[in-house]
Write a structure and sequence with these properties.
alpha+beta; two-stranded antiparallel ribbon; two-stranded antiparallel sheet
Length: about 110
């Protein structure tokens, strides 16, 4: 069964955080602005939420946002949500290697 890359990447983010405690730095890929923990974005349904708590899925309407707008007033650019996770590529590479080698380190 083939899964969309976005779906696989989201699963890998959750898996790497839950299994290995690999915390990725989160910042705007355009200007390097780092959102604070209490920063909230607004969904089209009106719900305010932190898109980095649940990989950009609105807790009210369950809409998955593929893009995230930078709230830095000097930037304001829109980027793919997954691009905000620094270190994602390294975590994916590590997980693929461990799967190939049959290892699972906790």
């Amino acid at each position: 069964m083939d899964f969309p890359l976005n779906c696989v990447a989201k699963w890998l983010i959750l898996y790497s955080n839950l299994t290995y405690g690999l915390m990725m730095k989160i910042y705007c890929p355009k200007c390097n602005w780092k959102p604070k923990k209490r920063t909230r974005w607004k969904c089209l349904c009106g719900c305010e939420f932190d898109p980095f708590e649940n990989i950009s899925k609105c807790p009210s309407c369950n809409y998955s946002h593929e893009f995230t707008e930078c709230l830095n007033l000097e930037c304001g650019k829109i980027s793919p949500h997954l691009n905000w996770y620094s270190g994602l590529d390294n975590n994916v590479t590590r997980l693929i290697y461990e799967v190939k080698m049959g290892k699972k380190n906790h």
